[in-house]
Amino acid sequence: MTQRVVVTGMGVMTSLGRELDTFWGNLLEGKSGVSLVESMDVSDYPTKIAASIKDFNPEDYLDRKEARKMDRFVQFAVVTSQAALKDAGISIGENADPERVGVYVGSGIGGLQTWEEQHTILMEKGPKRVSPFFIPMMIANMASGQISMLTGAKGPNSTAVTACATGTHSIGDSFRLIRDGEADVMICGGAEATIVPMGMAGFCALRAMSTRNDEPEKASRPFDKDRDGFVMGEGSGILVLESLEHAMKRGARIYAEVVGYGMSADAHHMTDPAPGGEGAARCMKHALRSAGMTPEDIGYINAHGTSTGAGDKAETAAVKTVFGDYAYKVPVSSTKSMTGHLLGAAGGVEAVIIALTLKNGMIPPTINLDNPDEDCDLDYVPNTPRKAEVKAAMSNSFGFGGHNATIILKKYEA
């Protein structure tokens, strides 16, 4: 018998807030989390802006000795997972069997900060001075590893590394594990921390990021004709998924139900989407089929919407392919206009957003949409949030390498 899967806990770490209420309030106010980068010298970089998390001290949340053994992305993941478990009211070993609680938290890039720091030590001081913690600190699976060690979760444990689709793949795979009876609870999502010299330099070299340095808060402008690239963000988004049976037994509060998951490959290009968003369209179709839904059942789409010319057009075309005439009636918004693009963490944060949309009946806007691109002609909820009774919502994530992932959540009904 397959299990129904529900969302019972959530946590975020973003430039717009570290608590759910603060984060949600800032989204509905249309605030931008983008600012000038202060954590490094960006004077020689074409892009000098990012959606950075400022004043984060891991020792406010973690034991100092443990925190020093973690890359920044792992710190984000661990802290956010602890917040999500607390939000869910789960204490592993008390109201959840440790062997039935799993972790599936991914990162698109992993410990880039640690890699940089230790490479500098290698070059300046030699191999004997490289930290013995270098490898276990920077490998991408260590977020899942550390979360399990610190929480006692002994169930399924894995990591997706699918670029910007990472967080959504992590949630979708966790949904399947619970649905198929492999776990009762999954801690899942994504974390990323790449606002470091190599990360900034690499994306600048791709000419993928906005250079609107004089107006940081207006730089991320998905679907707008005047967009000039994405804005990098950092942080994490973690969900606690639970079988409905397990959640009911302990009287859990339920945010939403996970009902659909699709994945596909473009098989086209390292960084560019397939023509017409063909791979993205197949991914959305798979998610709808998984959920047993028609396009008309979807009341909101949280778009991948990165604020790049090719990506925004391809996703718009894909939505039209899948939704037909209804594409012009379904609200679509890109919250990356406010959070920036959190790469491997984006899908986790955006899953939190669609769960809150279902719970609160409010659709967050796409800010900075002042001059729509002629090829981007859908209802992108420009600049102002919208009150709407959404019964089901979709979240899209598409990554370098042609990795596509889509999840569908709906309002929980007994």
What does this 3D model show about the protein?
This is Beta-ketoacyl-ACP synthase II. It comes from Paenibacillus mesotrionivorans. It is an enzyme of class 2 (transferase). Keywords: Acyltransferase, Transferase. Its EC number is 2.3.1.179. With 414 residues, the chain is α/β, with parallel strands linked by helices. It folds into two domains: 5-249, Peroxisomal Thiolase, Chain A, domain 1 (3-Layer(aba) Sandwich); 263-410, Thiolase/Chalcone synthase (Peroxisomal Thiolase, Chain A, domain 1, 3-Layer(aba) Sandwich), CATH 3.40.47.10. Helices cover 33% and strands 18% of the residues. The protein is built from 13 helices and 14 strands. The strands form three sheets. It has a ten-stranded mixed sheet with strand order 5-4-6-7-1-8-14-13-9-10, with helices on both faces. A two-stranded antiparallel ribbon has the order 2-3. Strand 13 and strand 14 (403-410) form a beta hairpin. Helix 3 (72-88) packs across helix 6 (142-151) and helix 10 (278-291) crosses helix 11. The radius of gyration is 20 Å and the shape is globular. The protein starts with a strand and ends with a strand.
Present the secondary structure layout.
Blueprint: E1 5-13, H1 20-28, E2 35-36, E3 49-50, H2 64-67, H3 72-88, E4 101-106, H4 112-125, H5 134-138, H6 142-151, E5 157-158, H7 166-179, E6 185-192, H8 197-205, E7 235-243, H9 244-249, E8 256-265, H10 278-291, E9 300-302, H11 309-323, E10 332-333, H12 336-339, H13 346-360, E11 362-363, E12 386-387, E13 392-399, E14 403-410
Parallel strand pairs: 4-5, 4-6, 9-10, 9-13
Antiparallel strand pairs: 1-7, 1-8, 2-3, 6-7, 8-14, 11-12, 13-14
Helix pairs in contact: 3-6, 7-13, 10-11
